[in-house]
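Entry 0007
Protein: TCTEX-1 family protein
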Amino acid sequence: MSSVNPTTAGDQAVQSATPNTGAELDIASSNIGTPSVTSFSSIRDNVQDCIVNSINSVLDQSTEYSASDVTTWVDSITSNCLDNLRKLSEKFKYIVSVMVLQRSPAGFHLFTTCYWDQANDGSVTHRWDNKNLHCVVVVYGVAY
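Output (structure tokens):
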């Protein structure tokens, strides 16, 4: 039995990337859909790809910030991300949080904490930027 320890999403490195060419997520990985996947760390790179592809399916470098469009963007990103995460492994309950902010000189700080099984659970945080806005996506995977 593994020990349960508190951890924070703040401990995870926030990664930033430029959008790719919009290629679809390749779900042909050896970890995908197999019952042997029990640790979030074993699918972390695939989760990162899910996040990037979900953002790139909605936003691009020319997207202007529009408060009236944010709800639609967030809904599309979360839905797309959850659909692809379920294809990776159904051994986890997933939580997807998406924040879209207008780019400005004002600061923004985000901190979350979880009490979970560090051996099997995990999170990935990804920050995407263009000249007009910031998009931060956090995915938590809790094994069950």
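Curator remark: DSSP finds two helices and six strands in the chain. Residues 1-32 have pLDDT under 50 and may be disordered.
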